[in-house]
Amino acid sequence: MTLMNLATVFGPSLVRPPEMVLGQCGPRVDISQEVVVQVQVVYFYLQSNNLPVPLTAMPLDSEEEADT
Q1: Could you tell me if residue 65 is inside a domain?
Q2: Which of 20, 46, 50, 58 is the right S-S partner for 3, CB 3.0 to 4.6 Å?
Q3: Which of 41, 45, 53, 50 is nearest to 12 (CA)?
Q4: Which domain holds residue 44?
């Protein structure tokens, strides 16, 4: 897959704005413009060569291994 295809697929779900609390209304935004912005943000990061190294986490089953 190309970087643009990856950004198009994952951008809207990774950069989705938080859900509104019931009873609150936010400013109306055209959803197509919002998706385009989200795709461009993810595409920018996919193109970047100097991203920080991801932090590693302990596996969920690490306690079981420590007991043995």
Answers
A1: no
A2: 46
A3: 41
A4: 1-16+32-48
For the chain, what is the domain count?
A: 1
Q: Establish if 37 belongs to a structural domain.
A: yes
Tokens of 12: 């809207």
Q: Pull the structure tokens for residue 46.
A: 């996919």
Mean per-residue pLDDT for 39-54? Answer: 84
- Backbone φ, ψ for residue 10 (5° rounding): -95, -20
Average pLDDT, the chain: 74
Q: Which of 48, 32, 31, 37 is nearest to 14 (CA)?
A: 37
Euclidean distance between CA atoms 47 and 39, whole angstroms = 12
What is the dihedral angle through the alpha carbons of 11, 42, 37, 25, rounded to the nearest 10 degrees? 60
